[in-house]
Amino acid sequence: MTATPVMEARSLVKRYGHVVALDGTDFELYPGEILAVIGDNGAGKSSLIKCLSGATVPDEGEVLLDGDPVHFKTPLEARNAGIETVYQNLAVSPALDIATNLFLGREPRRTDLVGRLFRKLDKKKMRGEARRHMNELGILTIQNIGQQVETLSGGQRQGVAVARAAAFARHVVIMDEPTAALGVKESAKVLELIVRVRDNGLPVILISHNMPHVFEVADRIHIQRLGRRVAVVTPKTHSMNDAVAIMTGATQLDAAGHDQVVNDASRRQAGQDAFRGAGE
Amino acid sequence: MARDRGSFLRRLLPSPAPEGPKPSALGPGSAEARQRSLAVRVHDILHSNATLGPALVLLIAVVIFAATTDRFLEPANLSLIVQQVMVVGTLGIAQTLIILTAGIDLSVGAIMVLSSIVMAKLSAVSGVPGLLALLIGFGVGTACGLINGLLVTRLRLPPFIVTLGTLNVFFALNLYYSESATIRGADMSDLLLWTGNTFDIGDTRITYGSLLMLALFGVAAYALGSTAWGRHVYATGDDLEAARLSGVRTNRVLLSVYVLAGLICAIAAWILIGRIASASPQAGGLANLDSITAVVIGGTSLFGGRGLVLGTLFGALIVGVLRNGLTLGGVDVLWQDFAVGILVIAAVAIDQWIRKVRT
Fold first, then answer.
1. Does A247 lie in the same domain as A129?
2. What is the ipTM metric for this complex?
3. Is the dihedral of CA A182, A187, A192, A197 positive or negative?
4. CB-based contact (8 Å) between B359 and chain A?
């Protein structure tokens, strides 16, 4: 990986009172990859993602986009820079239709006189583009683009959110626990979508608790522990148990990146935990 | 709202090839299966056409009164109904905007009365030219809306509490400024009374005030249905957090809604002066509740994000038709209130049912 990272963070520090959420975290996302971010509760996953998506401002350190430093103060600024976030709580408006949801906050206006004088929406364009974006991601099960989002299943709703992110992101798509609220079948659909977003050329940051999901789609896995990045592994070189062991501190990587078993018993325990996690 | 209009009749008919699991689990021709699928179909139609219900109720009321009383359909009587609803209808537009954002405005009546007194007194007592008095009145209404909006967005107080407070404040200011005295129409500029002027189309007498109300409904329907601002109003009321995360500046949307509502209340004040040919500090005391009644009967959800301003027009007309028809039928006024009360409860009950999503 010698390319410039699409997104990079250098020694981010974030404190909340006495609590140090981020303790000098580094981060790199390269073009065309799905980078999963995993870590135990309190490891600083959310704080890291919030710094990247503009939801919080780090106390120290810097964030770079395509090699240039950026300073996001609000999620809107990050969005304007081409970074889209899909939230785990399905940030879509249930009573509004699919096309409206897709374009919410950046509706196209008609370019003719009516559009300029009376700010009339270009509904035809909205519907057409929405249909195109949904098709691009293979969300063909939706019959009517004017359908209200609340009439869709959870997976389809998340599909709308993913399609919106993919349609407007120019640099990065961040997915915060996109499968947390979904059933098994629907999760599989959304994972497929994530892969398709990457194949269409957008790098994806995937935050997830679900190890099987992470190992199914991630190209690389960023492991966060105690406010720092402790390792970056790939599903090819490390098993799920290895990843969980690193995550929980049972295994530490030495400078050369080789595993060092700290405590065999705790590692076995970690492996069992991971296995149990997989069964959930 | 871009919804699949016109196709509701098609959906009401049994579709030849039902999608998904067939309801025939109970066996073909089972009465229970047929009944359930009809209820489901009605639900689906109402879910996507919230104004259909109020439109039907209005139609039924008109048909019943036309059949049972002689004078109901006379042009003069229809014109009277429109004149009777034009003040509440206009306030209903303001109320619809606010209820769509999941708020409620108890101060619309007080803003209207205060604005009407300011307009009238400036013109009649202070000798301010009619147009200027009118514009200052609009300014007062807008300022009242701004105060409501700032309290809701900056202090994050619930709209119910904010407007309950400002209702009393604005009403007290109105009593103070008017010295509790009614201002006669004869003393005011003709411009302030213009909304009560009439012209004739055939036998039908039409007031400019009712045209103004209809024009405002048109503008509001356009702004809500065809502009980005309208989408943001719906999104803000539907799910504030989702709208914010989607990049809608929800505070700005809310503030704009309260300010606009204030302005519309001031326009209602102008219509009120024309209607009663005077300005009274006691007029429109129950107008806030009447406007909420019109909005609710019109099918707009009190939980925000759902409804059409056109429904409020139907809602106001339903109340007007009901009161008028019952009066013509010689029914005691108390039964009019009784009927309106039942309608409100029925409308909200239906809304609760409609908002449920079949999965």
1. no
2. 0.78
3. positive
4. yes
